[in-house]
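Hi D.,

Good news: the full-assembly prediction came through. Inputs first.
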Amino acid sequence: MAQTGGRIAGHECDRERFIGRYRSYRNPEAVERGQLENSEAYGDDPCGAIQSDLELQPGASADILVLMGVGRADVGERIREGYGTPARAQGELDALKGRLHGLLESFGVETPDEDFNHMVNVWNAYNALMTFVWSRACSLVYTGEGRDAFGYRDTVQDTVGVTGLIPEEVRRRLEMMLTGQDSTGGAQPQIRPWQHRPGQMLPTPAHEYRSDDALWLFDAVPAYVAETGDTGFYRTVLPYADRGEATVLGHLRRALEFNLERTGAHGLPCGLLADWNDCLKLGFHGESLFVAFQVRHGLRVYAEIADLLGEAAESQWAREQLAAFDPRLQAHGWDGDWFLRAWREDGVPLGSKRCEEGKIFLNTQSWAVLSGAAMAEQAVRAMDAVEQHLETEYGLMLCAPPYEKADHRVTRAVLMNPGTKENAGIFSHTQGWAVMADCLLGNGERAYRHYRAYMPAAQNDRAEVREIEPFVHCQSTHSRFSKKFGASRIPWLSGTASWSYIAATQYILGIRPEVAGLRIDPCIPGAWKGFDVRRRFRGKILEIRIENPDGVQKGVRRVELNGRAIDGTLLPIGRLEERNAVVTLGQRR
Amino acid sequence: MAQTGGRIAGHECDRERFIGRYRSYRNPEAVERGQLENSEAYGDDPCGAIQSDLELQPGASADILVLMGVGRADVGERIREGYGTPARAQGELDALKGRLHGLLESFGVETPDEDFNHMVNVWNAYNALMTFVWSRACSLVYTGEGRDAFGYRDTVQDTVGVTGLIPEEVRRRLEMMLTGQDSTGGAQPQIRPWQHRPGQMLPTPAHEYRSDDALWLFDAVPAYVAETGDTGFYRTVLPYADRGEATVLGHLRRALEFNLERTGAHGLPCGLLADWNDCLKLGFHGESLFVAFQVRHGLRVYAEIADLLGEAAESQWAREQLAAFDPRLQAHGWDGDWFLRAWREDGVPLGSKRCEEGKIFLNTQSWAVLSGAAMAEQAVRAMDAVEQHLETEYGLMLCAPPYEKADHRVTRAVLMNPGTKENAGIFSHTQGWAVMADCLLGNGERAYRHYRAYMPAAQNDRAEVREIEPFVHCQSTHSRFSKKFGASRIPWLSGTASWSYIAATQYILGIRPEVAGLRIDPCIPGAWKGFDVRRRFRGKILEIRIENPDGVQKGVRRVELNGRAIDGTLLPIGRLEERNAVVTLGQRR
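Then the structure:
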């Protein structure tokens, strides 16, 4: 801590000396005394307080600059010399603002919904950036060992929301995560960058593997390649965490093999230590339908990548696996009106109408659609069941009804109050997937309604209900099963930021990068007469005007790029100029 | 929470409702309002507040009983029915006090030092009992995952201080710890009683073994047998944590083999993940002299147990191991004026006069003596070096000089301020060992001076220096290398309680249980003209009067038991009556 402009009249670094014994921030002794006494921190609780005595004549003003940082004193002194003037500090602040605004300009939208615009243009993107930077390390709620690292699945998903904003950083983060994958194909649960030594890490003990960790790569890696066109990334050779190495494509195949090699009684992937939902205790050989849908999604993505790279044998392998996998999903995944959540090791299903509690789970409905596993009629019925059983005015519940009688060895959710977090709370992370699924099905009205239900800005006038910031996403919101319906908890660092941003920009607005170009495929409320998007894509600027004169929810009739019609809905990269004007018309129903 | 006697006028279970937003415990809104509003806790921060409106006439009184507990409501109701009268509650409180006083009467002393008496008779014993009960789980400082379990080495040592008070509980705890030992001989770092399944636990990953964990059994198990005479315990068959089973004697042998099988370049035991001092990073194959002395101690104790049980082959094995081990200790442990602390994997010694920082460590001097490894002259020189380099008026420093330049990969101590905790602080846990070592050498004056230096009651008039309770031990005290010399931190739950109690009762006062009887072997300041001890031992009461007319520090001239002279200093168990009068005279020098 340092100050320039104004003589330093005293400082305090020991918090108790500043606040005083048996006092609090409400009445610090040092302020009452009016004089700091120059204490130094030496263990215990530190603080930073600088006193400057100023006398101002009427109308006069003075600038005081306070610099704060953590590090060695000699570095601090160099920084004070370099940055220690108000003008320089102002310049740095302006540069920082400029950088953030520059990033936020990667994607701008103007729709009829002002709240939606604010979220997409500023806060959701900023939220995703902060989550990418901090992971879960900066929390008033979660602390202690294990919270000082990059959790594997969180971190991989955190890249998804910022791929369009900071692709280079995303690539570096993905390389870290790919080299955090063991040669088994499973992933190290946590990565500590300062002690991450790819190729030399101890392999993860078999019982500590989560079943979903490495499967998130099938969302993150293709997103990076689609944004940048960097298909060579798939050929990049990277070490595994413990030993050996492979191309990124090889890493992806090992990830699939990891789950395909670990299947249970119905031939579906085991949940291992846990899948996405830590609370569910399936038994190590219990089977997770969520993971099954992730594997299906992974196989499909893998086949597409292999096709793209001309790796016919790899593509064929994936398609053969798919052909063997899908019948198992159909035979053991469908419950009649929706998809099951899991088969416990002891043969009991979770998320079935046969269950008394936890009859239906959200994630296996949305992922059945996202993965392409659901047949058309199943997809419709599953998402209708979501609306019927899980919708509330503040978002979709994770499951219903809540657990109140279950054995805590079956699900830890029973340890939570009904309507909170994993126990039939509105778990924000999952909302984006449901929105995306409804967009895939063409349900623009419902997707938008679900999106707005949990959109922070929509709660702007209900602070007394939400109780947290109305501009960032949070971990979860109390559902109608709770006495605090609508109260939200644990804002900022949540996988919600990533997926909500994708749901809004790529599914509702439908501006989706692909390796070959930019896809235009909105799915919106019929009442929207149109919207405008300004997007940066591979260094080019696109001004996209979507017109919806017929009030449709989905379906593009005609796309014009720089005044000329395009065949289909993809803006081919080869036809993009430095600046592009795009006009799209919604099709008549 | 429940109340009887006085109508309940309101309650509050949601803390924010009681305190109010932007308020603190200094000005709770509910108190200002004068009326509680019956909130229920539903997540977030709970509290328990009951309001009763009482009007008392002059001279009148009323009893209100408030019951608090955690658990199911139906259990709470049963308890309220059973205990919900002031008379019953008073009876329970009296019974609790009676039980604690009964335990504390196991050992009572009256010496010329009132502070010493208070510590031994009440507070040190109580401190040890609380530490046994809570382990390290009840702390304002340490929280989070890994702090919710019984740490192996802490827990084994915690039994040592309470063996004389609650031997049956100690036996059960020791059985838990013995069944927490893997079949490798190493120990599971942490035991969670509610999920401890001996014989079925996953074996500890090789790289997670601490080198000292199971070696503390050589202090705890013999202490239990000596207190109770229960030599059959050594024959009790108990499972290992992971698989297989053995007698307690077999467990002890595996513990020794574990370390003997894991030796480094000098044939000394490896430090593995860590020895007692977590801060030292020796490298996995670096060698710890502290552990070497523990192994030597263990071999000696094992040979004695084997002799006691008539297991000649076992005794011979241990003595052969000792004969092979001692020359290595002499060749690679002695630094010329004191004993080294460790050999790092890269060949660099720690705790050597060749070091610039951390030249001398306390624990390898005290343990060289306690283990019998030090030859007579080495023992004297090592403990003299302790006095010369490590003594301060508030206790002995863990090492000196502090680390300020070292690489944090060599010792994490460099991350702590000089003079604190493991970086040349006064680490309380270690003080008892030094006192015990000086007692073994006959240095009664010095042992007592070292003991008083860190004895909480001796700080009674220096609260502004000590800053914590003057009646319980703490983790550490700032040493003269710190700006807060004498300030103590982290009171209550520390291994200090156990070893200080042993040092005071068994080494300074010298009343030491052995399988064959009670040993009388004090080591005191010459100025003490005598002292009286009242001890319970195997159900019998001994009133022991120690007379020291010649002002010696050590050496017993004559022992009388119930009026008849005893040969030597052991009161044989066979000659003890229900109540016994013992008189001991210090010998002329």
